[in-house]
Design goal:
Layout lengths: L6 H30 L4 H29 L2 H19 L5 H16 L9 H16 L16
Helix pairs in contact: 1-2, 2-4, 3-4
Length: 152
Protein backbone atom coordinates (compact mmCIF):
# COMPACT_ATOMS: atom_id res chain seq x y z
CA UNK A 1 0.00 0.00 0.00
CA UNK A 2 1.42 3.36 -1.04
CA UNK A 3 1.01 6.11 1.54
CA UNK A 4 0.87 9.68 0.44
CA UNK A 5 3.03 12.25 2.19
CA UNK A 6 -0.09 13.94 3.57
CA UNK A 7 -1.38 10.83 5.40
CA UNK A 8 0.30 11.62 8.75
CA UNK A 9 -0.91 15.21 8.50
CA UNK A 10 -4.45 14.05 7.86
CA UNK A 11 -4.32 11.83 10.94
CA UNK A 12 -3.03 14.67 13.08
CA UNK A 13 -5.66 17.00 11.62
CA UNK A 14 -8.36 14.43 12.46
CA UNK A 15 -7.11 14.20 16.05
CA UNK A 16 -7.13 17.97 16.45
CA UNK A 17 -10.56 18.21 14.84
CA UNK A 18 -11.96 15.61 17.24
CA UNK A 19 -10.28 17.30 20.21
CA UNK A 20 -11.62 20.77 19.48
CA UNK A 21 -15.04 19.43 18.46
CA UNK A 22 -15.24 17.75 21.86
CA UNK A 23 -14.14 20.92 23.68
CA UNK A 24 -16.67 22.97 21.72
CA UNK A 25 -19.50 20.57 22.49
CA UNK A 26 -18.53 19.81 26.09
CA UNK A 27 -17.52 23.15 27.58
CA UNK A 28 -20.63 25.29 27.05
CA UNK A 29 -23.06 22.75 28.48
CA UNK A 30 -21.08 20.97 31.18
CA UNK A 31 -21.62 23.71 33.77
CA UNK A 32 -25.36 23.50 33.15
CA UNK A 33 -25.24 19.73 33.57
CA UNK A 34 -23.34 20.07 36.85
CA UNK A 35 -25.88 22.60 38.09
CA UNK A 36 -28.74 20.28 37.14
CA UNK A 37 -27.26 17.43 39.22
CA UNK A 38 -27.06 19.67 42.27
CA UNK A 39 -23.45 20.84 42.41
CA UNK A 40 -22.71 24.11 44.24
CA UNK A 41 -21.17 27.03 42.37
CA UNK A 42 -17.71 26.50 43.92
CA UNK A 43 -17.82 22.80 42.99
CA UNK A 44 -18.76 23.66 39.41
CA UNK A 45 -15.91 26.17 39.25
CA UNK A 46 -13.42 23.65 40.59
CA UNK A 47 -14.56 20.90 38.22
CA UNK A 48 -14.40 23.25 35.23
CA UNK A 49 -10.94 24.44 36.23
CA UNK A 50 -9.64 20.88 35.98
CA UNK A 51 -9.71 21.15 32.19
CA UNK A 52 -7.33 24.10 32.22
CA UNK A 53 -5.13 22.55 34.89
CA UNK A 54 -4.77 19.35 32.88
CA UNK A 55 -3.87 21.34 29.76
CA UNK A 56 -0.96 22.83 31.71
CA UNK A 57 0.30 19.81 33.66
CA UNK A 58 -0.51 16.67 31.69
CA UNK A 59 1.42 17.32 28.44
CA UNK A 60 4.74 17.27 30.27
CA UNK A 61 3.89 13.95 31.89
CA UNK A 62 2.80 12.35 28.61
CA UNK A 63 5.72 13.79 26.63
CA UNK A 64 8.28 12.54 29.12
CA UNK A 65 6.67 9.10 29.15
CA UNK A 66 6.53 8.96 25.35
CA UNK A 67 10.12 10.15 24.95
CA UNK A 68 11.50 7.88 27.65
CA UNK A 69 9.92 4.72 26.23
CA UNK A 70 9.47 5.62 22.55
CA UNK A 71 5.73 4.93 22.67
CA UNK A 72 4.58 8.05 20.84
CA UNK A 73 1.90 6.69 18.51
CA UNK A 74 0.90 3.83 20.78
CA UNK A 75 0.62 6.14 23.78
CA UNK A 76 -1.51 8.61 21.84
CA UNK A 77 -3.87 5.86 20.73
CA UNK A 78 -4.06 4.34 24.20
CA UNK A 79 -4.67 7.60 26.02
CA UNK A 80 -7.36 8.67 23.58
CA UNK A 81 -9.13 5.33 24.08
CA UNK A 82 -8.73 5.59 27.88
CA UNK A 83 -10.06 9.15 27.82
CA UNK A 84 -13.10 8.07 25.87
CA UNK A 85 -13.76 5.21 28.30
CA UNK A 86 -13.23 7.47 31.32
CA UNK A 87 -15.72 9.97 29.89
CA UNK A 88 -18.48 7.49 30.75
CA UNK A 89 -17.48 7.91 34.40
CA UNK A 90 -18.60 11.52 34.29
CA UNK A 91 -22.18 10.33 33.89
CA UNK A 92 -21.87 7.36 36.27
CA UNK A 93 -22.07 9.55 39.36
CA UNK A 94 -23.46 12.88 40.48
CA UNK A 95 -21.33 13.13 43.63
CA UNK A 96 -18.61 15.79 43.68
CA UNK A 97 -15.77 13.39 44.59
CA UNK A 98 -16.78 10.93 41.87
CA UNK A 99 -17.03 13.67 39.26
CA UNK A 100 -13.64 15.04 40.33
CA UNK A 101 -11.93 11.65 39.92
CA UNK A 102 -13.73 10.93 36.64
CA UNK A 103 -12.69 14.30 35.20
CA UNK A 104 -9.06 13.91 36.25
CA UNK A 105 -8.91 10.46 34.66
CA UNK A 106 -10.79 11.68 31.59
CA UNK A 107 -8.92 14.93 30.99
CA UNK A 108 -5.35 13.70 31.45
CA UNK A 109 -5.37 11.74 28.20
CA UNK A 110 -7.14 14.54 26.35
CA UNK A 111 -4.53 17.02 27.41
CA UNK A 112 -2.08 14.85 25.48
CA UNK A 113 -3.47 16.23 22.24
CA UNK A 114 -2.19 19.71 23.08
CA UNK A 115 1.40 18.63 23.65
CA UNK A 116 3.72 20.11 21.00
CA UNK A 117 6.32 17.43 21.71
CA UNK A 118 3.68 14.70 21.61
CA UNK A 119 3.62 14.66 17.85
CA UNK A 120 3.37 11.11 16.48
CA UNK A 121 6.72 9.66 15.42
CA UNK A 122 6.04 9.95 11.68
CA UNK A 123 5.31 13.68 11.94
CA UNK A 124 8.22 14.32 14.27
CA UNK A 125 10.57 12.60 11.80
CA UNK A 126 9.14 14.68 8.95
CA UNK A 127 9.53 17.88 10.98
CA UNK A 128 13.15 17.04 11.78
CA UNK A 129 13.85 16.24 8.11
CA UNK A 130 12.39 19.58 7.00
CA UNK A 131 14.35 21.51 9.63
CA UNK A 132 17.58 19.76 8.59
CA UNK A 133 16.88 20.52 4.92
CA UNK A 134 16.19 24.18 5.71
CA UNK A 135 19.38 24.49 7.75
CA UNK A 136 21.37 22.96 4.89
CA UNK A 137 20.47 25.83 2.50
CA UNK A 138 23.26 28.43 2.46
CA UNK A 139 22.03 31.91 3.48
CA UNK A 140 22.90 33.41 0.08
CA UNK A 141 20.56 30.90 -1.61
CA UNK A 142 17.72 31.41 0.82
CA UNK A 143 14.65 33.12 -0.59
CA UNK A 144 14.38 36.77 0.39
CA UNK A 145 10.99 38.56 0.35
CA UNK A 146 10.62 40.80 -2.67
CA UNK A 147 12.90 38.73 -4.95
CA UNK A 148 11.70 37.01 -8.09
CA UNK A 149 9.14 34.35 -7.29
CA UNK A 150 8.14 36.10 -4.07
CA UNK A 151 4.49 36.26 -5.10
CA UNK A 152 4.46 39.93 -6.10
Amino acid sequence: MVRSASTPYRRLAAIYFAYFAFIGAFSPYFALYLQSVGQAAWQIGLLLSLMQLMRIAAPYFWASLADRHGWRARLLQGTLAAGLAAYAGVFATTEFAGLFVALVVHLRPLARGKDPEGVPGELRDERERLVARHEAVPPEQAHEPGQAGGGR
